[in-house]
Write a structure and sequence with these properties.
The complex is a heterodimer of chains A (369) and B (237).
Chain A (H helix, E strand, L loop, with lengths): L6 H7 L4 H14 L5 H12 L5 E5 L5 H6 L5 H10 L2 E4 L7 H14 L5 E5 L2 E2 L7 E2 L2 E2 H10 L3 E5 H6 L12 E2 L1 H4 L5 E4 L6 H14 L12 H4 L10 H5 L10 H5 L66 H26 L1 H4 L16
Parallel strand pairs in A: 1-2, 1-3, 3-7, 7-9
Antiparallel strand pairs in A: 4-8, 5-6
Helix pairs in contact in A: 2-3, 3-10
Chain B lengths: L7 E5 L3 H25 L15 H29 L14 H15 L14 H26 L5 H4 L4 H4 L3 H33 L3 H7 L1 E5 H7 L8
Helix pairs in contact in B: 1-2, 1-7, 4-7
Classes of the chains: A alpha/beta (369), B mainly alpha (237).
């Protein structure tokens, strides 16, 4: 069997200096929350282990995950992960097409059974599989075949992890996330719409370095990136605790950088590392740019809208009807019911109230006093 | 002067632990509903100041969390008292498993709600319909504890909230949990309205001193009802 080049060999062959390689490894160790000895582990893994064979599928999605991925903070290394980590099959980025492309991914499945990773962008239609077909086969058929001998599945983004906009009500294609259509293989849900590039690279490096899937939370997301709320890591948090809220996007509070809670910020219910890693090489993130979090790393965030209201609408009661409006309505009804009942009581139970019935007997039998 | 003499007996219905439970529970629910509502819909009454001068919203949340812990342990105590308390506090009052309880429920609906028949409901403690409603409120307590501590778990390091961490993934994420927690809050508000009205109603119609019974523990019960009750309840008075 031919010797497969390691990441390090591939990277240095393409002219990346060792210094940059080490910088990347250090950044990754920090991202993954490793202690300093972890840097060495990552360096060693990337130097000695052969590249990971990867098949990357695009199903019902918008390619924003790929777009995010190629904008990771360390371009040379994103390059490693992209070109060298070996995307043997990536519909957006590969040069091959048609028969050649199909052959490439079939070759991966044949050459590396039990070793390759399947990475999925996009949800899988189940209502009618024909909604998403590639090369004459449905997304489900392709995925089922590829997953059979894979090592693990990485579900990129909200589509593959929770269905995202395609699975939002009424979900015409019956879109389902990866973990709902396959079984028997570990699925890592790298949530977000899209996920943060550094998180994506971090997950790949973790898989390579430690040869096992990272610790996941209850919703299948890697704990190192999704264990804390955007709200609990927000730099505007002090304004929340102080009760300083933006009430409209052009008010004094917005200028002063108050908390966006009342503008519908979903930070308090969203687990992600936007507040720490941020986006575009750590430049900013939505809240820093003055807009609330929309909760894109949470399942069903489209159906928990509106984005600019703190309380979500209640399904079945029409748009803009939140729990408080329904509660208040029920409260008024209850009060009306109580008033009505009190009035009826004074009429119907007149004898009891006036103490005109005999002990132990029903009022019908009470003799008039 | 209008007066009437009927033979009544004083019956010790609510033991001290039940009464303490009741009032702690009432205070907690008032505190939780008020602070909970504010947390859901805060007033932005401060402007033009900086965060480091203030902490009022943090304080509101703090009160909510403290009241929640108190509410939780108080609830646990009440469940225990459902097995240790007197016959009016026991668990079997709250779950209508007996035919007689269902009969009384139908009676209460006819007599007190629809008011189509007029007769006396003989129960000394809660009537069977009230008990069933209290059982439903216990389920509400449970939902609020599960969803509340479930949300709290992510920002806590202590073991008690951590024990509820499974709730969030089970319900599909914080968004759903928070929504549920919020909707159930209204259940408490509606219950409180009806509960207070019915206390007044029963005192108005029956004059058994039900309002003050939750303070002193004693109710006035017609002698024949007490006499008929005795043999059945011989275990503990």
């Amino acid at each position: 069997m031919e010797k497969r080049p390691t990441f390090y060999e591939e990277v240095t062959d393409s002219g990346v200096p060792r210094r940059d390689f080490l910088k990347f490894c250090t950044a990754m160790a920090a991202l993954l929350g490793l202690e300093s000895s972890g840097v060495g582990q990552i360096v060693k893994a990337l130097e000695t282990k052969p590249r990971l064979p990867v098949i990357w599928f695009h199903f019902q999605e918008c390619t924003c995950c790929s777009e995010s991925f190629i904008r990771s903070s360390h371009p040379e290394v994103a390059d490693i992960v992209l070109n060298k980590i070996s995307l043997d099959y990536q519909e957006t980025l590969m040069a091959a097409s048609g028969v050649n492309a199909e052959e490439a991914y079939k070759a991966v499945m044949e050459k590396f059974p039990g070793e390759y990773l399947v990475m999925v962008e996009g949800s899988i239609p189940t209502e009618d599989e024909a909604y998403c077909c590639i090369g004459g086969r449905s997304a489900y058929q392709i995925l089922e075949e590829a997953v059979k001998n894979c090592k693990a599945v990485v579900a990129w983004g909200n589509c593959a992890s929770a269905g995202c906009v395609q699975a939002a009500s009424p979900n015409p294609t019956g879109a389902k996330p990866v973990h709902k259509v396959i079984s028997g293989k570990p699925v890592i849900n790298v949530q977000g719409c899209p996920p943060i590039a550094d998180v994506m690279v971090g997950v790949v490096v973790h898989l390579l370095t430690f040869d096992r899937i990272p610790q996941l939370d209850g919703l299948g997301r890697p704990k190192s990136f999704y264990s804390r709320r955007v709200h609990d890591t927000c730099y505007r948090r002090a304004n929340f605790d102080a009760g300083l809220f933006v009430e409209s996007f052009d008010d004094e509070g917005a200028k002063k950088g108050y908390c966006l809670y009342k503008m519908g910020c979903k930070g308090p219910v969203t687990y992600n590392s936007c507040g720490i890693i941020k986006w575009n090489d750590g430049v900013s993130y939505p809240i820093q740019s003055g807009h609330g979090c929309i909760g894109c790393s949470e399942a069903g965030f489209w159906d928990n809208g509106p984005f600019y209201e703190h309380l979500p609408s209640v399904a079945g009661f029409g748009i803009e009807t939140n729990a408080d409006k329904i509660g208040l309505g029920l409260g008024v009804l209850t009060a009306a019911g109580i008033a009505g009942h009190a009035i009826v009581t004074n009429v119907r139970k007149h004898k009891e109230i006036m103490n005109e019935q005999e002990e132990g007997s029903s009022s019908e039998k009470t003799k008039e006093i | 002067m209008r007066s009437r003499s009927i033979p009544m007996r004083e019956v010790h219905v609510w033991e001290l632990p039940v009464r303490i439970y009741h009032w702690i529970n009432a205070l907690c629910i008032v505190a939780l509903c008020i602070t909970g509502y504010i947390i859901g819909e805060p007033l932005a009454f401060m402007k033009g100041t900086e965060a480091y001068f203030n902490y009022w919203f943090g304080t509101v949340r703090f009160i909510h969390f403290v009241a929640a812990f108190l509410f939780f342990f108080n609830f646990i105590f009440r469940i225990y008292w459902g097995f240790a308390g007197n016959e009016f506090a026991r668990w079997y009052n709250f779950i209508p498993l007996k035919r007689s309880q269902w009969k009384e429920i139908m009676d209460v609906i006819r007599v007190d709600i629809l008011q189509i028949t007029h007769k006396r409901i003989d129960s000394i403690g809660h009537n069977s319909l009230a008990s069933l409603i209290y059982f439903v409120t216990f389920l509400f307590f449970l939902v609020q504890c599960l969803t509340g501590f479930g949300m709290y778990a992510a920002m806590s390091t202590s073991f008690l909230p951590k024990m509820f961490a499974w709730v969030v993934p089970m319900l599909g994420g914080d968004m759903n949990v928070r929504q549920l927690h919020h909707i159930f809050m209204w259940g408490f508000i509606l219950f409180a309205l009806v509960h207070m009205y019915l206390v007044f109603y029963h005192d108005y119609i029956e004059r058994r001193g039900v309002t003050s019974s939750m303070i002193g523990g004693w109710k006035f019960i017609e002698e024949d009802v007490v006499d008929r009750h005795k043999p059945e309840a011989g275990k503990k008075s």
